[in-house]
Hints:
By secondary structure, the protein is an alpha+beta fold. The chain has 13 helices and 10 strands. The strands form 2 sheets. A 5-stranded antiparallel beta sheet has the order 2-1-5-4-3, with helices on both faces. Strands 7-8-6-9-10 form a 5-stranded mixed beta sheet, with helices on both faces. α10 packs across α11. The longest helix is centred in the first third of the chain and has 35 residues, at 83-117.
Amino acid sequence: MISNQILQNTIEGLKGIARVELCVMDVDGKEVAATMDMGNCSKPAVEFAASPADSQEIQGYQYFKIYDEQQLEYILVAGGTGEDVYMIGKMVAFQIQNLLVAYKERFDKDNFIKNLLLDNLLLVDIYSRSKKLHIQTDVPRVVMIVESAGGKDNNVLELARTHFGSNSKDFITAVDESNVIVVKEFAETDTGKEIKKSARALEAALLKEGIREIRIAYGTIVHEIKEVSRSYKEAKMALDVGKIFFDERDIIAYSELGIGRLIYQLPIPLCKMFIREIFGGKSPDDFDEETLTTIYKFFENSLNVSETSRQLFIHRNTLVYRLDKLQKSTGLDLRVFEDAITFKIALMVVKYMKYMETYEY
């Protein structure tokens, strides 16, 4: 469960302190990590593994057994004899055994969180396993999804874990090859601003490490561990809907999606039918650039004719003329609130349809 690199780093650090050469072998006598070549210890290590002894001195080396839940996992070889080397060997074996326990617990927690996110656990299992793993069940949590250009290949998972540190209250994992998931605990008094601040801090940390094209989406706060999967689903929707309707934002919350999340759940045939009813055989794509710019600017300014004409640097009458022309071609007068809503929804539906076509191919 522990990587060979972790073991190598551990025994090199301990050798630097104790000045004793160390080697970790598996039960078949194969070297896993070492501070010097101890190939001549392979055969004695296998024989020692088969013996009932927990430690033994053989031909100038001290041998120690390292267990993982009563299962022999490694043989530690310490170069040298005497009480001092024996004591150092026992300490190193104890340290590695603790590492096994720590990594096993981390793996168990990671596996639990993955299954929790994917709704793979029964309610009774959620609470029993939470208790066993010492995970609080009734604290506020939010699920964040981190997406970047290179997916997990650019070490986003490890960078995110480093950013949040060894805080056992937060969980950083992944359930696919594309995104990293953060299940973050917040205080009862924390608001949406605090969540966005945390997302911004994570984004800044990743940018500092050279990660580019980052998008972070997050769900709503849940107060029970059984509801974490709901926050995850909300974050997933926020990520997708954000790409369609808020592509200029790199951080998006589920609570900010507005009508976009309703449109996202519409079937494509229904969308096509709606567009035909609004525009006949036309599409908003058929409008020229000038008309589209006028429409979007008019919406930006909350249907205010004077402010829109000022920002477009055109006369008020010119804007009125354009709106009249649009009304004749579509039957919708954007100065009327109801027509403006219909037109706005239609534009969003077209944007959604275009995104889905691109996604499918």
